[in-house]
TrEMBL record:
Signal peptide: none annotated. InterPro entries: FAD-dep_OxRdtase_2_FAD-bd, FAD-oxidoreductase_2, FAD/NAD-bd_sf, Succ_DH/fumarate_Rdtase_cat_sf, TAT_signal, TAT_signal_bac_arc. One of its GO terms (biological process) is steroid metabolic process. Residues 47-554 form the FAD-dependent oxidoreductase 2 FAD-binding domain. Its cofactor is FAD. This is 3-oxosteroid 1-dehydrogenase.
Length: 573
């Protein structure tokens, strides 16, 4: 059955449809009586229907296919890849095969202490059998340890995602006493560039080539909007809306696996679930929380909706919906610092991206404001000349690159006036926030203090450059003979100076329906909803507030894709 419901829609309108009010009407679940279920004419039938063809969907489809199933991927965008296509595609795989081969020990008990310490620091207790985690969190974290490596090895051996290992790459808290295997857990797509900037493109290319080679059907421009449920409550298929405006219904004999990403691009969900002001992010624009809306008709338990994989982003680019928007993974520049609207430094600029973001949402209860709602990165000509990079969200870009997010001034006073003007342009997005009257005076004092620290090499306020991960993301620098700390250098006494506005953003969100460790979506009694699975950012991640390491999203996602495919096939990993 292929039923026309609206005139052919442009891709843009098709994508936007859910963000607007149409979403509530279009999304959900259809419960069918036994008779209706047998009467319904599906357009196609597969063993496994995978919704979303990104970082979770492609591996889930591949694992299902390699178990002998007939598999289709229904993808909303015009091509597969999702957010994963933009990613560096590091994937964090504890106790991975190259580590074992190299004799790097990574016992499960140590790994569990590391992840528990960071996911639920307020409850962490190393003396407790489950370390302070809930049963669910403990089981989910164990599953990552048990399955990430077998999953990565299988993808590699089938030629879908051959990997490269760099034993020196650290976790983000490599110096914590709980981290007994601080280096070596990250894998990279083998054919990616050494800069790793094209990892996602490579991984999506190799995985989708393997999908086509091995007979997985891929239908793009197909937005899943409903699950079809039989009388017993089992999910038996999905209804999707094609770009041409027709309905396409697919029966799933064994399982429907959702991998439709998070809700970064649904401002309503963002505003109501995330903490503080988050200005969108760099997830695929098609990630609009569709599974939250679809599953809300199914008696599911939403978990960890308040957390996301965060990264600072350029305010200019976020507001312009600039396709080149990326998280500021690499806060380039040594003669560079961040200040708030009072001209005060409030954070170690080189902290890992997810961690810097906690600063934006600090609330001043006395003044009734977010003093750090937007931070301002400031740098001098030296940093401009030597630290420019087009990689991963760097605000300091080389000459000739798109630099519309940058403002300039020959003096600090001129710079302040240019920043003030830029903030005025965005006053409705910033709640009217502007620079304080004493901004320039404070900035001058802040730079003098920073310069003093840079000369001695010791940042007494924020300890910049003291942790291993800060050097990993430092970006290009020209090493100066008198430089004591590679992440810091005094800003010049004379201009020109440069600045850019930064706000909190997401790579994507990490809340959604709760699943068990086999990817089965659970109902409010904790029982699996038969036939319904979820992997990736469309379901709840047990990592809660943690971003354990580079690859901390994709490594676990691949593990759960592996486990979901096994379970859907009637087995257990
Ligand atoms: C710049 C950048 C760099 C990153 N680097 C890394 C990294 O190095 N390592 C790491 O671990 N993580 C990284 N991430 C995060 C990582 O990319 C995501 O966590 C990961 O891609 C999530 O996989 P997913 O399958 O949940 O979502 P996605 O990869 O976003 O895939 C979701 C797919 O579902 C589709 N979809 C949405 N709704 C529907 C619907 N209703 N019907 C059908 N299809 C639908 C979307 O179009 C999309 O293709 C990075 C992210 C960004 C933005």
């Amino acid at each position: 059955m292929s039923e026309t419901i609206q005139p052919a829609a442009s891709r843009r309108n098709f994508i936007k449809a859910a963000g607007a009010g149409t979403a509530a009407a279009a999304f959900g679940a259809v419960s069918l009586t036994a008779r209706a279920a047998s009467d319904i004419k599906f357009d196609a039938e597969y063993d496994v229907v995978v919704c979303g063809g990104g970082g979770g969907g492609l591996p889930a489809a591949l694992f299902s296919r390699w178990l002998g199933n007939r598999v289709v991927i229904l993808e909303k965008a015009g091509s597969v890849g999702g957010t994963a296509a933009k990613a560096a595609f590091w994937y964090w795989v504890p106790n991975n095969e190259p580590m074992r081969r190299a004799g790097i020990a990574d016992p499960k008990a140590d790994y569990m202490r590391y992840v528990a310490r960071l996911s639920r620091p307020e409850q962490y207790d190393a003396t407790q059998p489950k370390l302070g985690l809930s049963d669910w969190e403990y089981e989910m974290c164990e599953a990552i340890y048990d399955s990430a490596s077998p999953a990565a090895e299988l993808l590699s051996s089938k030629g879908a995602l051959p990997y490269r290992h760099e034993a020196a790459v650290p976790d983000y808290w490599a110096e914590l006493p709980e981290d007994k295997a601080p280096r070596g857990r990250v894998l990279f797509p083998k054919d990616g560039l050494p800069s790793m900037s094209d990892g996602g493109r490579v991984a999506i290319r190799t995985m989708s080539a393997a999908a086509r080679r091995d007979g997985i059907d891929i239908r793009t421009g197909c937005r899943v909007q409903k699950v079809l449920v039989d009388e017993s409550g089992a999910v038996i298929g999905v209804e999707s809306l094609t770009e041409e405006g027709t309905l396409y219904r697919v029966r799933a004999k064994k399982a429907v696996i959702f991998a439709t990403g998070g809700f970064t691009h649904d401002p309503e969900l963002r505003k109501n679930f995330l903490h503080g002001a988050v200005y969108g992010g760099c997830a695929a624009p098609t990630n609009e929380g569709d599974f939250v809306r679809i599953s809300s008709a199914l008696d599911v338990q939403l978990r960890n909706m308040n957390y996301s994989w965060m990264a600072p982003i350029s305010l200019d680019k976020a507001i312009a919906k600039d396709g080149s928007l990326s998280g500021i993974f690499t806060p380039t520049g040594d003669s560079m610092l961040y200040v708030n609207k009072y001209g005060k430094r409030v954070v170690n600029e080189k902290l890992a991206y997810n961690e810097v973001c906690a600063t934006f949402s600090e609330w001043d209860g006395a003044k009734g404001e977010y003093p750090n709602l937007t931070l301002i990165s400031i740098w001098d000509q030296q940093a401009q000349d030597h630290c420019g990079s087009d990689d991963y969200g760097s605000l300091i870009v080389p000459k000739g690159s798109n630099d519309r997010h940058v403002v300039r001034g020959n003096t600090l006073a001129e710079l302040a006036s240019a920043i003030r003007e830029r903030m005025a342009k965005y006053q409705s997005a910033l709640g009217g926030a502007t620079l304080s009257d004493d901004f320039t005076r404070n900035l001058d004092a802040t730079i003098k203090r920073f310069n003093g620290f840079a000369k001695t090499g010791v940042d007494q306020d924020f300890h910049r450059g003291e942790r291993i991960v800060e050097k990993l993301f430092n970006g290009p620098v020209s090493k100066k003979a008198d430089q004591k700390n590679e992440t810091m250098y005094p800003l010049a006494a004379k201009g020109p100076y440069y600045a850019a506005l930064i706000v909190a953003g997401n790579l994507d969100t990490k809340g959604g329906p709760k699943t068990n460790s086999h990817g089965q979506v659970l109902d409010t009694r904790g029982a699996p909803i038969k036939g319904l699975y979820g992997v990736g950012n469309c379901v709840a991640s047990a990592s809660a507030r943690a971003y354990w390491a580079g690859g901390g999203t994709l490594g676990p996602i691949i593990a759960f894709a592996y486990r979901a495919a096994q379970s859907a096939n009637g087995g257990q990993p």
